[in-house]
Amino acid sequence: MTLLALASMPLALPAQTSNLIATTRRSVTCVPESDFPRYDDQRCAYFRVTAPDAHKVQVAVAGIEPLELQKDSLGVWTGKSAPLPLGFHYYSLLIDGASVADPATYTYFTNHPVSAIEIEEGIEGNYYRPQPGVAKGQVRSVQYYAESTNEWRRALVYTPAEYETKRHKRYPVLYLQHGMSEDETSWTKAGLMHNIMDNLIAAKECVPMIVVMESGDINRPMLKPGDENPFAGFLTFGKSFYDVMTNDLIPMIDKTFRTKKDSDHRAMAGLSWGGRQAMEIVTSNMDKFSYIGDFSGALLLQNLKEDFGGILSRPDEFNRKIHYFFIGYGGAGDFGPSDVKALENSGIRFHAYESSGTAHEFLTWRRCLKEFLPHLFK
Amino acid sequence: MTLLALASMPLALPAQTSNLIATTRRSVTCVPESDFPRYDDQRCAYFRVTAPDAHKVQVAVAGIEPLELQKDSLGVWTGKSAPLPLGFHYYSLLIDGASVADPATYTYFTNHPVSAIEIEEGIEGNYYRPQPGVAKGQVRSVQYYAESTNEWRRALVYTPAEYETKRHKRYPVLYLQHGMSEDETSWTKAGLMHNIMDNLIAAKECVPMIVVMESGDINRPMLKPGDENPFAGFLTFGKSFYDVMTNDLIPMIDKTFRTKKDSDHRAMAGLSWGGRQAMEIVTSNMDKFSYIGDFSGALLLQNLKEDFGGILSRPDEFNRKIHYFFIGYGGAGDFGPSDVKALENSGIRFHAYESSGTAHEFLTWRRCLKEFLPHLFK
Question: Which of A85, A166, A197, B206 has the largest CB neighbor count within 10 A?
Fold first, then answer.
């Protein structure tokens, strides 16, 4: 390959978009050389795609109808969306019917690589941004062999800044799961959990802790011809992770890191399907955990005597073993409210939190994490 | 968002491709739910793209002519390439002229997210695969504020397995750079450097060391109208990184990790444009480094009295300060041979290595790293 072959560059910005650049903000998800996607004060998003020979280019974002882009004489497609919710939204391009990531942003994993746009908050979002003077922890990629599934896997492990200097101190551990189709990278790339941890620890709003993120093995299965219900058997999604968690992951973490190993110092939380996984794993292993966080989690409670082995129908036992049970959800439509209702007169001790104006996406989950952390290990 | 809305699934595999599945191998770069891209014993690659309304779908891979895919009645495009070189190859799809990543593979960063296919070696490639019984190091994501460029940046830092248990031991440091358009993730995601380090350390072929990977700030600039030479000024690409390296990155690493801080225990290497950056930084800071690795590096030597401040025309000084100078390149066409020729009778002490049958891609650079490491810090 020659230097010149490396030079297949995007076209320079047409003159007519320079005013747009001045009056709108660039998404933090953009790759360095890209000025799009952008958004304005009304939270309308602007997209720009080079596709000279395409007949139709659309953007599928945030659950609204696919946005059709318009082509100019140079083969550059642009479009403006209706106002989007605040926060972080995955999206894909549809180029003549092919669903692909936008080359203008970094990619995120939801079964396949997708793009994202973030409609940013003001200073109220500083808790998930790096702050001057705040010591930074690390996120460590750790490979290990899981006997349960006979494969090499990896965990991402957050360690607080002081872990490097307090060389004999031991720490409690939070296991933190992603949602359906995501993977172990989602909480750092989309959730910015490392910044949330650093900022809350520095402000003494939570205790220093280790946070472990692994893949919950919940890729969406492929449709087979004849499948009438694409979610047939969906309650079993991610079951293979349960043995990995208890037989392989927890032992590896306790061996590799300076952890506190007792149940009073181990918590589990997850978002969406990961919230359900957290509930399943904790209620099946009450000797190992004392805290549960359920962020927009699909608990789908129907009958407390049967769901999750019936533990939610035995409030004395549950409340004695679980020090804190958090259920959070987005106020703009989300899983959560029906589960809160099902638990209201059950005697189960829990804390419900509603994130104002956000939906089933990562701004809700950043806020849930921020609300949840101060209650752990105290 | 409802569970059902999450269910926009890829089509099931058509029956006629099941024989292909049986007779070819799936690329290790595939996302979990994808069976393509694949390759056969002749190193021909097979691609498969769902694009029902597209008029032309091509694959741009490994410097060959774009491969045209053929559409079936379901809107699925497939195609078989000519034999590809062994190794790891970035590629993009062209869907009606739009250059995008293939949703079937994980993405890699080269200015924009792109896809990759790996034509794998046999057991001779075990040195970059995780091996039973070999203790695994960690790759840590470390954020820091760089005063030189007034921004938050991050480094990826490999620490050897024993770093966790030998809590007072100090380690030498290798700074390892990516190529043009890549970033700090390239050496782990595409280079699998963590496996190479673990395996060589376990076999005592190299000493345990810390390896630091940062972005060299070498995105390709966007073409501007009127630019006759897209590489006008290319010798300055990535200059902003030089101050970051000496003023911010090295001090942060020496403060955060248990490093040996003297020049006898600091090395720098890079691939392609990163090899040039390593050469520039080391020759401008001979008091800080004692080792140079140049993997397919664009040194572009013209005049030893002028290149790199003329240091290559002063062999006594260079040889006294630099303990080991490595130049490696792919045998199937690459940067390197002209630089080796320019140095042949210079009196400069260096070791040249040619990777048999590979080109300007990551299999060459994995091999270069494997050849380079045993000579460091001994």
Answer: A197
Q: How far is B224 from chain A (nearest CA, A)?
A: 5
Please give the pLDDT value at position A34.
Answer: 94
Cβ of B95 within 8 Å of Cβ of A98? The answer is: yes
Per-position b or e across A241-274, b if 16+ CB within 10 A of its CB: bbebbeebbbebbeebbbbbeebebbbbbbbbbb
Q: Token digits for B134? A: 């070999």
Do the Cβ atoms of B53 and A181 come within 8 Å? no
Confidence of residue A64 (pLDDT cuts 50, 70, 90): confident
Q: Does A65 touch chain B (CB under 8 A)?
A: no
pLDDT of residue B16: 61
Question: Are A33 and B194 inside 8 Å of each other by CB?
Answer: no
Q: How many CB atoms lie within 10 A of CB B167?
A: 11
Residue A349 corresponds to which amino acid?
A: R
The contacts of residue B134 (CB under 8 Å, 6+ apart) are B198, B199, B202
Q: Is the CB of residue A97 less than 8 Å from the CB of residue A131? A: no
CATH T-level fold of A3-120: Immunoglobulin-like (2.60.40)
State the average pLDDT over residues A221-242.
70
> What fold is seen in the domain A127-375?
Rossmann fold (3.40.50)
Chain B residue numbers touching A189 (CB-CB < 8 A): none
Closest chain B residue to the Cα of A105, Cα to Cα: B112
Concatenated DSSP letters of B2-24: -TGGGG-PPPPPPGGGHHHHHHS
Share the mean pLDDT of chain B.
Answer: 92
Instruction: Tell me the per-residue pLDDT of A1-29, one tens digit each, with 9 for 90 and over.
Output: 333 333 333 444 555 667 889 999 999 99
Chain A residue closest in CA terms to B140: A140
**CA-closest candidate to residue B61, choices B39, B31, B76:** B39
Contact between chains at B100 and A96 (C-beta distance less than 8 A): no
Where are the domains positioned within chain B? 3-120, 127-375
More confident residue, B179 or B16: B179
Whether the bond into B10 is cis, omega within 30 of 0? no
Chain B positions touching A104 (Cβ under 8 A) are 112
Distance CA B345, CA A284 (A): 72
**Strand (E) or helix (H) holding B108:** strand B108-110
DSSP letter at B291?
A: E
Peptide bond into B37 cis (omega under 30): yes
Q: Which of B10, B167, B225 is opposite residue A12, by nearest beta carbon?
A: B225
Q: What is the ipTM of this complex?
A: 0.93
- Please give the pLDDT value at position A267: 98
Contact B98 A95 (CB under 8 A): yes
Q: How far is the C-alpha of B68 from the C-alpha of B62, rounded, in Å? A: 14
A34: chain B residues, CB-CB within 8 Å: 112
Confidence of residue A360 (pLDDT cuts 50, 70, 90): very high
Amino acid at A196: I
Instruction: Locate the chain A residue with the closest alpha carbon to B300.
Output: A3
